[in-house]
Design the sequence.
């Protein structure tokens, strides 16, 4: 059974940078799956942030709220993926999830439990 | 950026049937992209209960069923049980926005 575990700083100051890691166990990050980041702001719904494939393919959500601030990367040797979000504001306060995309589908079959990032001075 | 609309809440007594609707547009559900459904309890990992419109993952009870028509989809839960109380989100892909889109979420309450 594939398991994903997010980790991050918890608290970040406004205008700072958030760096999150998602460790994958029970399966290889080099499998035929896209790996995704999704977030949920307090009281809000789910928002897709971006995705990466182990050979380097990347897609980002180019919404005004995220545009040009997101970097997703992958470390095949460590079996983990990372998310970097720059110039954060209070609007970036959210629970951040990593999720595996099912092969041949646009659905996400395995998710981490999420890590809360609070942006506050 | 919720491109898919769901009712905020639905409720039913144990044993009853409830349905959750998910309304999209011609660039996501109506474009033929699959609709998927997730069950989510706060503090836990979202769990997929239906994928590609009508496919139930292994381990999900057959009380859950999915359907899709035009620009909308639905998730039905029959024989409602207390353990079904959670937030449910639909999800698809939008080929105009080039993003994966989620629904606004529906809270299912078992009375």
Sequence:
């Amino acid at each position: 059974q594939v398991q994903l575990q997010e980790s991050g700083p918890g608290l970040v100051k406004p205008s700072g940078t958030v760096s999150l890691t998602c460790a994958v166990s029970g399966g290889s990050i080099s499998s035929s799956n896209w790996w995704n980041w999704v977030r949920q702001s307090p009281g809000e719904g789910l928002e897709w942030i971006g995705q990466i494939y182990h050979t380097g393919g990347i897609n980002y959500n180019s919404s005004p709220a995220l545009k040009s601030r997101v970097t997703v990367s992958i470390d095949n040797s460590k079996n983990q993926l990372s998310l970097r979000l720059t110039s954060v504001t209070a609007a970036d306060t959210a629970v951040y999830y990593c999720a595996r995309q099912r092969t041949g589908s646009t659905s996400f079959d395995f998710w981490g439990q999420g890590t809360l990032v609070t942006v506050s001075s | 950026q919720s491109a898919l609309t769901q009712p905020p809440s639905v409720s039913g007594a144990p044993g009853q049937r409830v349905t959750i609707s998910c309304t999209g547009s011609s660039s996501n559900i109506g474009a033929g992209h699959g609709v998927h459904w997730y069950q989510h309890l706060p503090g836990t990992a979202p769990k997929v209960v239906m994928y590609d419109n009508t496919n139930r993952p292994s381990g999900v009870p057959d009380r859950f069923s999915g359907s899709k028509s035009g620009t909308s989809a639905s998730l039905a839960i029959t024989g409602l049980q207390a353990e079904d109380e959670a937030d449910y989100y639909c999800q698809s892909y939008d080929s105009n926005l080039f993003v994966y889109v989620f629904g606004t979420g529906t809270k299912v309450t078992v009375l």
Observations:
- The two ends of chain A are 39 Å apart (CA to CA).
